[in-house]
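ugh ok fine here u go
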Amino acid sequence: MKLFLELTVYYVAMLLGLLLLQWYIPNIHDHLPLGAAETLIRSTESDILKGTAIGATEVRTIGESLGWLFAALVGALLMALPVSWVYMEIREEHQYDQALDNTIVMLPLVVTGVVVIVQHSLALAFSLAGIAGAVRFRNSLKSTGDALFILLSIGIGLAAGIGALELAFAMSLGFNYCFMMLWLRQYGSRGDKKFMRSVREQAPPANPPKDEGAD
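structure:
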């Protein structure tokens, strides 16, 4: 319940901060990475390779571009932080992976920058795929549930990169509350099989085999 209250206060504070900013600066919406979700939902573009023009509508100078990018990176970080809190809370000490927790926080920032680069260029997108294939890294996840956190981090970065922080906010909020409810209710557990447990504790055999060579 403590984490539930902390998340609620965190999300409410972000909403109030954005509303106050909008109230003091009425046209700030045009200079922030917001609103692209509506463009994507209403898009009727039939050519999937052409894409849709998204992003800020009033960004024309280098200063405005840097401000937009900075807001997108900070927004991605703010949406990823509560996800890492949930991961730390649900994982026991022997299951917790600090590297994965750091990845949950930092991966959205990297994806945001990458999406800004390849957003309107199919050639750059294929080039990035080739580079990622050449510079691969592997990390064995301890649980299938950990893959959900990585997937959400990528989704937050994608949303921030296209200027749809409202979508990143909805993804972060919905994932965290749903995941916490499943964890608190131990949904789908049977006996001692806990929610998202990756290591099965097995009791040692009652009669261990004897060493034939021993006296």
